[in-house]
Amino acid sequence: MAVRSPTFLSLFCGCGGFDQGFHNAGFRSLGAFDIDEAALAVYRKNLPYEATACDLATVTFSRISGCDVVVAGPPCQGFSTIGKRRVKDPRNNLLVTAAEQAVRISPRAIILENVAGAIAGTHARYWRKASLILRSGGYQVQELLCRADEMGLAQIRKRVLLVAWKTRFRGDIELPQCKGGTLRDAIFPLTASLPNHFPKYLDAATHSGRIAKRIQPGQKLSNVRVSERSVHTWEIPEVFGTTNAEERRVLTALIHRRRQKRVRDFGDGDPVSARSLAYYLGRPVARVLKALVLKGYLRCDERGYELTHTFNGKYRRLTWDAPAPTVDTKYGDPRYFLHPDEDRAFSVREAARIQGFSDAFEFSGNEKHQYLMIANAVPPPLADTIASYLSRTILQ
Predict the structure, then answer these.
(1) CA atoms within 13 A on the CB side of 194
(2) What b-and-e string marks burial along 32-45, b requiring 16 or more CB atoms within 10 Å of the CB?
(3) Model confidence pLDDT, tens digit, residues 336-381
(4) CATH code for the domain of 34
(5) Residues 19 and 165 in one domain
(6) CA trace torsion 71, 174, 148, 154 (10° rounding)
(7) Is there a single domain that holds both residue 239 and residue 163?
(8) Whether residue 18 is found in the same domain as residue 167
(9) Rounded Cα–Cα distance for residues 12 and 35 (Å)
C-alpha cells in the first residue's frame, strides 16, 4: 500500500520559501495564496503547485479535509525593528488573520512565522491574540525562537514561530540544531552563468565608490561609534572634506558626550552644548565648533551641537569567515551592504544563496522586488527542518 504524503496549505506564501522547504521534506501542497502577483509568478515558475492571488484579509476559508498543516508567514514590516515599527500598522493584524484562517481550515498542525519583533513590547498584543485564537480552536500551542545560524544557515536571522497541533503528540517541541556556515560557505564560488547573478560594480570616481575603497571587511561608515569597526566621515576627506587634528578631537569627544548626557528617552544620542564639550575636553571649543558647522560635519540648534550623519552603519562590508547579517531588502544597495572583496553590493543570486535557495530557484520581475521577495521569504532549509520534524513527531 502506498504511503500518503503529508499535505500542507500555504497562506501569505510569497515567492515560496516556506513551500520549497515543505516540498523538499516530502509534503504535498493543497494550495498557496498571496496578494503579490509578482511573487506568485516566481512561485509558479519554481514549484509544481497551484498558487492563487487573493487578499487573505477579505476571503474566508472553510474546513479542508485531509489538510495536515497550514503554514503562514504574514507580513513582518510593522513588527521589524529595522522599519518604522508602528503599532497600528494595518499589516500587523494580518498575523491575527492568519491564525483565524488557519483555525477555519482545521488542519492537524499550524505554523505561524514572523520576525522576533512580533513578540516585543506593545506589538506583542497581536502575537498573544493569535496564540489565543489557536488555543480557543482546540490546539496545543508552543512558541519557538529560531536562529538561522544555529539551524544550518550562514546568516544571523532570528524568527519566532507559533506551532499549534491537534494530535497525540505530547511534550515540548525541540527542533534539531546544526551550526551554520560562513558567508564564504554560502556564496563561494559563483559563476557568471548562474541565473540572477549580475554584479554591479561601483564607479571609483563617484562618492559611493570612494567611500567603499575606505571600508575594510568588518567595517562600516559610522559616526556614532568609536572602534576599529567604525570609519568616520572625517576619515574620508576626498568625499566629506578635510579636517585638522583639533577638529577631529572635538568630533570624537562629541561622539562620547552625545550618549553620556541624555535628555530624550529615544534615539541614539542627544545634541551636546558647547559648555559640556569644553568641560569634557578642558579647553574652549566655540571656534572649532563653528568651523565644523561650516564644513558640514555638525549642525546646531537651540539644544546644542549634533553630528550631521548619525546613522549607525552604512556601507557595511561583510567578512568571508562569519555568518552574514539578516538578509533584508537592502542587500542589493551598496550604501548598506558591501561584498567582502569587491566594491559592490550583493547580486540577487548571492542574497538567495544566503537565504538558502538553491541555484535552480530562479527569480524574475523588477530587480528591487526580487530582493524584497528573498528578504521576506522563510529560508527553505529552515522550513525543511520544521517540516521534517513535524512529519516524524507531531503528525505521527
Answers:
(1) 20
(2) bbbbbebbbbbbee
(3) 999 999 999 999 999 999 999 999 999 999 999 999 999 999 999 9
(4) 3.40.50.150
(5) yes
(6) -130
(7) no
(8) yes
(9) 8
Last residue of a domain, one of 313, 341, 376: 313
Catalytic residue from among 76, 146, 178, 300: 76
Task: Say yes or no: 221 and 175 in one domain.
Answer: no
Q: What's the CATH number where 253 sits?
A: 1.10.10.10
The answer to whether 110 and 134 are in contact (CB under 8 A) is yes
Q: Pairing relation of β-strands 7-11 and 69-72?
A: parallel
What is the identity of the amino acid at 212? A
Overall domain count for the chain? 2
| CA distances, 196 to each of 68, 161, 320, 352, 353 (Å) | 34, 30, 21, 9, 11
pLDDT of residue 267: 79
Task: Note whether 163 and 267 are same-domain residues.
Answer: no
Q: Angle at the Cα of 332 (from 365 to 318), degrees rounded to 5?
A: 150
1 grid coordinates: 500500500
Predicted local confidence at residue 1, as pLDDT: 46
Q: Quick check: 17 and 378 in contact, CB under 8 A?
A: yes
In contact, 292 and 341? CB cutoff 8 Å: no
Q: Cell 544550518 maps to which residue?
A: 152
Three-state DSSP at 325 gives strand
CB contact at 8 A, 149 and 177:
no
How many angstroms separate the Cα of 286 from the Cα of each of 12, 248, 283, 290?
Answer: 57, 14, 10, 6
- Residue 228, in any domain of the structure: yes
Q: Of 313, 348, 374, which residue is a domain's last?
A: 313
For residue 136, give its domain range: 7-179+365-394
Cell 577638529 maps to which residue? 247
175 and 221 share one domain = no
Q: What residue ranges of the chain have pLDDT lower than 50?
A: 1
pTM recorded for the entire structure? 0.94
Tell me if residue 146 is catalytic. Answer: no
Give Cα separations from 371 to 185, 227, 261, 331, 336 (angstroms).
20, 31, 40, 7, 13
Residues 131 and 232 reside in one and the same domain? no
Q: Give tens-digit pLDDT for 312-329.
A: 889 999 999 999 999 999
Q: Mark whether 158 and 221 lie in a shared domain.
A: no
Alpha-carbon distance 377 to 355, whole Å?
8
